[in-house]
Amino acid sequence: MTLHSRIAEVTERIARRSHDSRARYLARIAAAADAAPRRRRLGCANLAHGFAACAPGDKAALREGVVPNLAIVTAYNDMLSAHQPFERFPDVIRAAAREAGAVAQVAGGVPAMCDGITQGEAGMELSLFSRDVIAMATAIALSHQMFDAALYLGVCDKIVPGLLIGALSFGHLPAVFVPAGPMTSGLPNDEKARIRQLHAEGKVGRDALLEAEAQSYHGPGTCTFYGTANSNQMLMEIMGLHLPGASCVNPGTTLRDALTRAATQRALAITAQGNEYTPIGRLVDERTIVNGVVGLHATGGSTNHTLHLIAMAAAAGISLTWDDFSDLAEVVPLLCRIYPNGKADVNHFHAAGGMGFLIRELLAAGLLHRDVTTVWGTGLDGYVVEPVDGCGQLHWREGANRSGDESVLRGCGQPFQPTGGLRVLDGPLGRAVIKTSAVAPERHVIEGPARVFHSQEALQAAFKAGELTGDFVAVVRFQGPKANGMPELHKLMPPLGVLQDRGQRVALVTDGRLSGASGKVPAAIHVTPEAAVGGAIARIRDGDIVRLDAAAGRLDVLVDPAELAARTAATADLAEAHAGVGRELFSGFRALVGPADSGAHVFAA
């Protein structure tokens, strides 16, 4: 199938826009590349420190410098269900490396926080910044220059983007991303959401709510709804950074271990010492990034990636914009219904055909670049397969050529909707993003008087007091990156969902985030410029008529432009958000961070 003209057009303009920055990046990683292990040029004391704690055989191999040495950069901790399985991965990787006559070392660990634990708490205000801390920690892990390639162990929201940004700073090194897989299915996600709304209304108590949450999040592995964590796994596979079919295999299975061993073998095969040298900085190019955006639209993935993909692309010298997201969304159909835009979870998606079927369909429709570099050594044609562990021997077989459940996964011939699940909004309030895939079509346009709040707690208090009557648009501001680190505002969803179910026409406008939990309530998020820098959202007053039009891609406030411009921007006392729970350590991040539509990162352009 010929590449769709819109895919080709957007890719070409990204390449033109990025020409100079990409050229500088490629020149930098070319200068760092070397066919011989860099550790051989280290001083004797430096090298001795590098292998001092190794097993005797590994020490001898590194002393001679003739075998590849793999870095393991891990986000393991045993508090996060998604990352707890990584505890034993280094042993699996080291054994696989030794079998191949090579060495693997844990080069370093990176922090891994859980947005599910910090939702509505002060720690959530560190969440987005943790991505850039993870990137820095990755760079520190690799800075010893002992390694020929790296394996990255991470799954969740900011962890994979941070690892990839850090990996791209060492773009001359090959890299393979190694997932842990989703937990098995527990309480259905729609039932969990129902109980959350009942609790918000005071109809069930904390015990019932906690029991529902514990049945949903019940064991090791990624949460099973389609939020940022599982969007990360989709991206790593469709961008060719996972082994084919690796994303959705449950932890603690023989297949999961077999894939981890195979990832180790591929990392060794693509070092500069072999014949398949595949540096990550060349693998991740304009076509790879466009494939990632296409995958995001086709699956109705997390809105967080309108930040993360821009930041990840920038780390490779590539300039991606919200306009690129918007233009690609117009031609990419929605092929998946996974909670929150459906009832199924990622295990159901995997059983219905999963990534192999999805990639097959998008390739057949000309919506993906097939001739990309991947860690598997093929273009994307090599990813329309599924892994099988038969009699202890890993192999790949042809993936499904039809969906096993068309309520979850469909082909391009009969999509759930003809366009992608994300839309960019423009208007006098600036720019914003909306996830439409879970919003009923009759709610794609909402107009109503503004109810203005400076925190999600203030909105919740108004809800509990019975003050949120009639149709309205909730404006929750001073939640942007410079204000307080741009937290996710998930606690807004149960009360707004309750009001919507009562028949009120409601919507949310905020300079904060919602992520993969963006659900049935229309929500214009990531509004930029944010309130903390005097953006127009800071000039909205209670009663102003706000119109959110996802169909037309507009976000308007029906106030005379001259009057709006003449108003004094509201201010907020943010001192309480700048101290405690470690937030005082991030004042430099709040000063440096860029706007949402530039990726909200702290790194220089």
From TrEMBL:
Its EC number is 4.2.1.12. Binds 1 [4Fe-4S] cluster. Residues 408-600 form the Dihydroxy-acid/6-phosphogluconate dehydratase C-terminal domain. It holds the Pfam family ILV_EDD_C. Residues 68-380 form the Dihydroxy-acid/6-phosphogluconate dehydratase N-terminal domain. The keyword Mitochondrion does not apply. It catalyses: 6-phospho-D-gluconate = 2-dehydro-3-deoxy-6-phospho-D-gluconate + H2O. [4Fe-4S] cluster binds at residues 156, 223. GO terms for molecular function: phosphogluconate dehydratase activity. SUPFAM superfamilies: IlvD/EDD N-terminal domain-like (SSF143975), LeuD/IlvD-like (SSF52016). InterPro entries: 6-phosphgluc_deHydtase, Dihydro-acid_dehy_C, DiOHA_6PGluconate_deHydtase_CS, ILV_EDD_C, ILV_EDD_N, IlvD/EDD_N. Its cofactor is [4Fe-4S] cluster. PROSITE patterns: ILVD_EDD_1 (PS00886), ILVD_EDD_2 (PS00887). Pathway: Carbohydrate metabolism; Entner-Doudoroff pathway. Keywords: 4Fe-4S, Carbohydrate metabolism, Gluconate utilization, Iron, Iron-sulfur, Lyase, Metal-binding. It is an enzyme of class 4 (lyase). Belongs to the IlvD/Edd family. Catalyzes the dehydration of 6-phospho-D-gluconate to 2-dehydro-3-deoxy-6-phospho-D-gluconate. This is Phosphogluconate dehydratase. The lineage of its organism: Bacteria, Pseudomonadati, Pseudomonadota, Alphaproteobacteria, Hyphomicrobiales.
